Amino acid sequence: MEQIARTSKQIGAAIRRRRRLLNLSQGELGAKTKLRQATISALENGEPGARLRTLIDVMVALGLELVIRERSKAEGRIEDFF
Amino acid sequence: MEQIARTSKQIGAAIRRRRRLLNLSQGELGAKTKLRQATISALENGEPGARLRTLIDVMVALGLELVIRERSKAEGRIEDFF
DNA sequence: CAATTTTATACGCTACATCGTATATTGACA
DNA sequence: TGTCAATATACGATGTAGCGTATAAAATTG
To answer: Which ranges constitute the DSSP H helices of B22-69?
Structure first.
């Protein structure tokens, strides 16, 4: 599944979804990444001050990757078609 | 163009490529985002400690978006086919 | 090559993520 | 509803991003 994430909240939501899909608790993910459970919690809740390193470490542990592309027009915004 | 970015260096490189495509200097991009030219420089050079907020602000200013997806197998790694 | 623009780096400062540890709150389920 | 697991939050400590400002180094262009 491909998640567009334009805000830190959307990034956090995508990570949480993936973690749950893998049946991991925040604590278990924290163990894999050497991050605290509290740090995982903050990231999933969309703290915009989180560090890139944190995001990347978590994504690696979850088998995720980032794609950077030109902002798509009208993605999920039906009004833009009119 | 779609850039896979698994490291902060790759993220930085994608941003730099896009900025140059738009014919912006780091200073001009900094003005748009209210970030210092030095901060843009650090981000483009792949500082892993950069904040999510910084990345997102820059991506918005450049008309970019993130996609989060399952790590693709064998992307650029021919050995994985054997 | 010289002049100019662009990018990288430095210093002291403030803000805040992350740490370890601990607890409070919430959620799931018998 | 009560118990246990999971998540959110708290505290003081430490590390470091980003700030303003300035300059050094590199790249561009005439």
So the answer is: 26-33, 37-44, 52-61
Spatial separation of the C-alpha atoms in residues A9 and A44, rounded to whole Å: 7
pLDDT in tens, A29-62: 999 999 999 999 999 999 999 999 999 999 999 9
- CATH code reported for the domain at A8-68: 1.10.260.40
Cβ proximity of A9 and A50 under 8 Å: no
Residue with CA nearest C7 C1'? B41
Amino acid A41 CA to nucleotide C16 C1' distance, rounded Å? 16
Q: Which residue of B lies nearest to A6 if distances are taken between CA atoms? A: B65
Domain edges within chain A: 8-68
pTM of the model: 0.90
Check if A20 contacts B (Cβ < 8 Å).
Answer: no
Q: Give the gap in angstroms from C-alpha A64 to the nearest C-alpha of chain B.
A: 4
Q: What is the pLDDT of residues B25-81, one digit of tens each?
A: 999 999 999 999 999 999 999 999 999 999 999 999 999 999 999 998 754 443 333
